[in-house]
Amino acid sequence: MGCRRGLGSMLAACLLLLHPLPSPACPVACHCTLGEADCSEHDLREVPQSLSTNTSALWLGYNFITVLGPHSFPPLPGLLLLSLPHNYLGLIHSQALVGLGALQELDLSNNYLTELSPETFLPLTSLATLNLGSNRLGVLEPGVLSTLPQLGALLLQDNPWVCSCSVLPLWRWLSHNRHKVRERSSLLCRLPEQLNKYPIMAFGNESFRQCQETSLSAEHYITFLIIGPFSFLASIFFCIFMGSITVVYHNLRREPHFWRRSRTCRGC
Predict the structure, then answer these.
(1) How many CA atoms lie within 13 A of 63 on its CB side?
(2) Of the segments 73-87, 193-207, 225-239, which one has the largest average pLDDT value?
(3) Do the beta carbons of residue 108 and residue 89 sit within 8 Å?
(4) Residue in 255, 109, 117 with CA at minimum distance from that of residue 182
(5) pLDDT over 70 for what percent of the chain?
(6) What would the 3-class secondary structure string for the chain be?
(7) What is the distance between the terminal CA atoms of the chain, rounded to a whole angstrom?
(8) pLDDT score of 260 more than 60
(9) Considering Cα of 94, then 95, then 100, then 101, what sign does the dihedral take?
(10) How far is CA 98 from CA 72, 109, 132, 219, 253, in A?
(11) What's the pLDDT at 211?
């Protein structure tokens, strides 16, 4: 009996070796180990969807991902690091990062991003490090960075910054958060041409004295577009009217002198 039990245990162990317990999901194009998924350099055009929910780090660099659409990622409640450098990423939908609330580090460097909406990073309430370096950002909308309360390190170098009034919100944020900005000396203007390679952090308050920060809604713009031409025409008619009155007034003042001279001549 003892031998039979021993043989049974050995057979069970062999079966476990031949048919191991199911492991967490891992996409074919990735290498997964200890909660990390490395999907780099596999010519991927979108984010793999069969990732394990316990993934804590996801590497997607050196692929061909061009767009992050709505809900681009599967549920990854424990994801702490997301790396997407050296793709062809040009657009991130405002709902692309939903479900990544635990994310602490995001690398979007060396891509083709030209703009970001404030809604994009709203789900990332725990984000501490953000790398936007080497993209095509000319401006950064007000509110993009203010939606990241835990942000402690920001990289923005090697972007073609347009140093007009539109850079004021970024300059103001940078001025109040110098300790969070890495490689500050690499934040250089690209346009206008006369400010090419001028450091953004070298600007002072007086540099933006002429900038008006009032933002108008579409309704206000339409109102101004309608009122503007009418105001212009009204001002022209008003000037003509006032000019006519002035001419008539001067003529009336000259008329008594004319009649006086005529009577004097008749008396002669």
Answers:
(1) 23
(2) 73-87
(3) yes
(4) 109
(5) 75
(6) CHHHHHHHHHHHHHHHHHCCCCCCCCCCCCEEECCEEECCCCCCCCCCCCCCCCCCEEECCCCCCCEECCCCCCCCCCCCEEECCCCCCCEECCCCCCCCCCCCEEECCCCCCCCCCHHHHCCCCCCCEEECCCCCCCCCCCCCCCCCCCCCEEECCCCCEECCHHHHHHHHHHHHCHHHEECHHHCEEEECHHHCCCEHHHCCHHHHCCCCCCCCCHHHHHHHHHHHHHHHHHHHHHHHHHHHHHHHHHHHHHHHHHHHHHHHHHHC
(7) 163
(8) no
(9) positive
(10) 8, 20, 19, 32, 80
(11) 84
Q: Which amino acid is at 58?
A: L
CA distances from 261 to 51, 82, 265, 266, 267 (A): 107, 98, 6, 9, 10
Distance in angstroms (rounded) separating the CA atoms of residues 242 and 81: 72
pLDDT tens for 170-184 read 999 999 999 999 888
pTM of the model: 0.71
What are the tens digits of pLDDT across the range 73-107? Answer: 999 999 999 999 999 999 999 999 999 999 999 99
Residue 201 reports pLDDT greater than 70: yes
Q: Which residue from 201, 80, 76 is spatially nearest to 150, judged by alpha carbons?
A: 80
List, for residues 118-140, the tens digit of each pLDDT value: 899 999 999 999 999 999 999 99
What phi, psi does 130 have (nearest 5°)? Answer: -130, 125
Cβ atoms of 196 and 190 closer than 8 Å: yes
- Tell me the pLDDT band of 266, cut-offs 50, 70 and 90: low
Chain centre to alpha carbon of residue 91: 10
